[in-house]
Amino acid sequence: MGSLLAGAASAVVTPPVGYRMGAWGLRQGRSTGVHDDLFAKALVLENDDVRLAIVAMDVAGITREILEHIQDRVLELTGIPASHLLVNSTHNHTTPDFINAIPEELETYAKVFADNVAGAVLEASAHMSPATAGHGWGDLPGMTINRQYKEQPIDTSVGVLRVDHADGAPLARVINFACHNLCVGGQYLDWSADFTGVATGQVEVDDPGAVCMFISGAGGDIHPFDWWFGNTDSEHMETFEDAAELGTALGDVALGIIEKIEPVSDVPLNVATSMVNLPRQKPSWTVEAARQQHEVLVEELGVYQGETWAVGTNTANAGMLNPAIYGNGMTQLLMAERQDMPPIRADLQAFQIGDLLISASPGELFNELGSQIKQGGGAERTWVASYTGNYIGYISTRLPHEETAVIPLVEIVDQTRFRRYYGTTTSPFAPEAGEMLVAESIALLKKLA
């Protein structure tokens, strides 16, 4: 067994002020400031001729075009192929909007963004040195909730990878946790990394010398605090203070885990990749019926044109307070129009770092599916890295699909009754897609076990 080499780096990727804010349909204004910087952070590991890189980006998500630009540039600069490059989005909601497409005004920034990401990988690769690594677990209960089924048990585990220089000095820390990164709401027009930026920043301050990264877990249906869909009584209104509260709590847990990890130099590395074509959701209504309903609803509800969220809005009540954007039937129309399109490609990765296994997949994976992958790979040693690669949409469990299948088109748009199913009703995927992704992900992990 050879000796582990490691390098880490970070690059500021904060956009210029003046671009439109993304991620919230209810916020259509342009950015007017920077609350805290956005980063792309990279960790490169090498042992026995296996070199891999893990990248965390403070962005809601990226298109395949941006992903391929990053992959091509990393290969050109470092020789690391796409199969050995894990590119993860933290899914913060105070970020430029190129999650599904690149707006014309963001074309230049998107290229610079991708180059900065690749540059961080190059910097990390160019400064590798003998290192040790190890991983550990903790828990952060009571800070998150399943937004569809508020009583459902959820995965609140926190995983941490610790990488040190050979002399014991901190080199890198990687945190894995499942939660939507949206503590900062749409009432702001400031760029921010949200709670994950708070957590990683805290670790970097308290563990000086380390580059700390956040890898998003299976948080597709997980919200912070008590933001289950329909809750009108939450005292948390998606403020920077909320981000600080959750981020600080996560950072404290991570620091406690780091102290208990005993890193070693004997760290085998391995990678496996696969691909699965996920079938599309087929609604019970026709395109024409959905189009007619959408036109009627737009006429009745009007068109939302707000620069920011209205006072009193948070993600738990936004659908009910703003039917003009969430209940206008556009989702149902798009689903009907796209149901006969080809299946959607999902590129899967599995990384081994010593005793740690990482299952990486694109899209917003629901928490229960992530837990199934962890069990399949070994819960004591498996992370799930959702939001990896290009964004492909929500990947829901089967139960909410079955419950919504019986709801008529004219009723499903009622946000006071059916907002809870957001993420399932907005998913492009059929009910069995999540199970297909889980099965293929576990099979991939077993190749490394």
- Please count the helical segments: 13
Number of strands: 18
**Structural class based on helices, strands and sheet pairing:** alpha/beta
Rounded to an integer in angstroms, the radius of gyration calculated over CA atoms is 21 Å
Morphology call: globular
The end-to-end span amounts to 17 Å
Query: Which stretches of 5+ consecutive residues score pLDDT under 50?
Result: none
| Main β sheet profile | 8 strands, mixed
Average pLDDT figure: 97
What share of residues is helical? 25-40%
Count of discrete domains: 2
Note the beta-strand portion.
Answer: 15-25%
Q: Spatial order of the strands in the main sheet?
A: 5-4-3-1-6-8-9-11
Describe the protein's architecture and organization.
This protein folds into two domains: 5-268 and 359-385, no CATH class; 276-343 and 397-446, no CATH class. α1 links the parallel β4 (50-57) and β5 (85-89). α3 crosses α4 (240-260) and α5 runs antiparallel to α8 (330-338). It has 449 residues and is of the alpha/beta class. The strands form five sheets. Strands 5-4-3-1-6-8-9-11 form an eight-stranded mixed sheet. Strands 13-14-15-17 form a four-stranded mixed sheet, with helices on one face. The chain has a two-stranded parallel ribbon with strand order 2-10. 54% of the residues are buried. The two termini are 17 Å apart. It has helices spanning 64-78, 107-126, 194-206, 240-260, 287-301, 318-321, 323-326, 330-338, 367-377, 398-405, 409-412, 415-418, 433-446, and strands spanning 5-12, 33-34, 39-47, 50-57, 85-89, 129-139, 144-146, 157-165, 170-177, 190-191, 211-216, 222-224, 269-278, 344-353, 356-360, 364-365, 382-385, 394-395. The protein contains 13 helices and 18 strands. The model has no long low-confidence stretch (mean pLDDT 97). The radius of gyration is 21 Å and the shape is globular.
